[in-house]
Amino acid sequence: MAKPPISSVQLDLRISKQDLEPKKYWEEIGYGSFATVYKAYCKKHNGFVAVKELFKEYRDVQQKEIDKLVQLSTHIHVVGIKGVDPDRNLIIMEYCSYSLSKLRKTLGKTYIPWPRCLLYATNHEWG
Could you give the maximum distance between any two Cα atoms of the chain, in Å? Predict the structure, then answer.
């Protein structure tokens, strides 16, 4: 059986403006060359999510990134995609209350075995 086209997958991932709390409550948690990332509450998923807001000049990057995230969404080392709002250039992903760089600084290592990483992350609140 052939894989469904990405556009049909996106229909299941669509997030509306009403699903997310108002932007004035979002907390900026990161930024890069293509986007700013916020922590926001999502009513549809009943919890916090990471909202990646792509800069308008990089709108063409959005579809490529969504395609990659959907393909990799079941990989244990990739943050899962929870939704998209193409009208507002948003990609909604799982929210992690910790970062790998913070974990490395805390544990003082450049390589951290996943079992130890998960144990440490679940026993400490960094959010």
Answer: 47
The yes or no reply on domain 6-96 and CATH 3.30.200.20 is: yes
pLDDT in tens, 84-127: 888 888 889 888 877 666 766 776 655 555 555 556 666 654 44
What are phi and psi for residue 45, nearest 5 degrees? -105, 0
Do 52 and 91 form a contact (C-beta atoms < 8 A)?
A: yes
Residue 37 pairs with which residues in a beta bridge? 30, 52
Domain boundaries, the chain: 6-96, 98-127
C-alpha distances in Å from residue 41, one per residue of 61, 70, 87, 95: 25, 21, 19, 10
Distance CA 88, CA 34 (A): 14
Tell me the H-state helices in the chain. 6-13, 59-72, 100-107, 114-123
68 is in an annotated binding site: no
Q: Residue 30 contacts by C-beta under 8 Å, 6 or more apart in sequence?
A: 36, 37
Answer yes or no: pTM beyond 0.90: no
Report the candidate in 95, 69, 92 with the shortest Cα–Cα distance to residue 17. Answer: 92
